[in-house]
Write a structure and sequence with these properties.
Layout (H helix, E strand, L loop, with lengths): L1 E3 L11 E5 L7 H17 L2 E8 L2 H5 L11 H8 L6 E6 L2 H4 L3 H10 L4 E7 L12 H11 L2 E5 L3 E2 L2 E2 L2 H9 L3 H8 L3 E8 L4 H5 L4 E3 L10 E9 L2 E10 L10 E6 L10 E11 L7 H22 L9
Parallel strand pairs: 1-4, 2-3, 2-5, 3-4, 5-6
Antiparallel strand pairs: 7-8, 9-10, 9-14, 10-13, 11-12, 11-14, 12-13
Helix pairs in contact: 5-6, 7-8
Length: 316
């Protein structure tokens, strides 16, 4: 997959099958579009192209309303790459872009640069200056400029319409299992290992603390997780919160790797959240906390035992 950051230097050798969007989370709805896009490109002999923007347009237009990212740009590229696309455009969203009307964007970018013959969008797709572009405009222009607009229906899972905003809300509320269903994989955060206060190793169980590079951290609580260390997956239990029993003041993310002795301490860690066990709470004593932590580990092992033969999601 070739990644383009400056569309002005791109010269299209072939017409394209193309889609546009922010693809935050690369959820099941996005995945449906990507799958149909790649199928179309192969069937029509066109180049498969995904256009995304960096930063999110709202960060330029209305910063206070810009959404928290589900997936950082590096992770988004890694996930999209699994569809074996020809081109991923990560275009800088700037003032010039923001001032293009819907029709100008179609003529100058979609047709003028990327030579789109097949365009894949959702039925609520909006684009262009002051939201002047929509599906009706695309259909009107397609007749004039000879390209095909494919309207991809929304994905609904157990009554939930799959959208980035819905997934964002679920993660922030701690409803991680439902969020994972809509994502089609486990929500994962990554970051460097940072030193903690050493209380876990001394008083409870040894933990790895991370400083996440991901913006969207699940709601405080205790989770069944997978810890990805040097490309290997380990069963783990992760706490997100303030450690109130030991008078914690800052939000921490700490994970205990189950039944594994890590001989070489890692420098970076990714944590995939599988299932929420409980809320974080303050215990009367360290002893009570340790008893609960051991119970959390037992419940996590039982969870993994029950689901080890099930076709599970994957961390990217």
């Amino acid at each position: 997959m070739e990644i383009i950051y400056d569309h002005r230097s791109y010269l299209a050798a072939l017409p394209s099958s193309l889609t546009i969007g922010n693809f935050d989370g690369v959820h099941l709805g996005h995945q449906r579009i990507l799958t149909r896009l790649v199928q179309s490109a192969r069937a029509s002999g066109t180049t498969s192209v995904v256009l995304s923007f960096e930063p999110h347009p709202l960060q330029l237009l209305i910063p206070k309303k810009a959404p928290i990212r589900i997936t950082p740009i590096v992770d988004k590229i890694s996930i999209i790459n699994k569809w074996n696309l020809d081109i991923l455009g990560v275009l800088e969203f700037n003032k010039a872009f923001s001032e293009l009307s819907g029709e100008q964007f179609v003529k100058q970018i979609i047709l003028g640069i990327f030579r789109a013959k097949h365009l894949f969008v959702g039925n609520n797709f909006i684009f262009g200056h002051r939201r002047s572009g929509n599906v009706l405009l695309l259909q009107e222009l397609s007749k004039k400029f000879n390209f095909v607009v494919h309207i991809v229906p929304q994905v609904v899972v157990r009554g939930f319409r799959v959208s980035s905003s819905r997934i964002r809300d679920l993660i922030q509320c701690g409803k991680i299992s439902t969020a994972n269903r809509l994502l089609g994989r486990y929500h994962t955060i990554s970051g460097p290992i940072v030193p903690g206060r050493g209380l876990g190793k001394k008083l409870l169980l040894p933990t790895l603390n991370i400083l996440p590079t991901t913006e969207l951290v699940p709601s405080p609580g205790v989770y069944v997780s997978e810890s990805i260390i040097r490309a290997k997956h380990y069963l783990s239990v992760t706490n997100v919160g303030w450690a109130p029993t030991v008078s914690g003041k800052n939000l921490i993310i700490e994970t205990h790797v189950l039944d594994s002795n890590l001989k070489k301490p890692p420098t970076n860690l990714s944590i995939a959240f599988l299932h929420r066990l409980r809320d974080e709470k303050k215990f009367r004593s360290i002893g009570d906390l340790k008893k609960q932590v051991l119970t959390d580990c037992q419940r996590a092992r039982r969870f993994f035992s029950l689901f080890k033969n099930v076709n599970r999601y994957k961390s990217f």
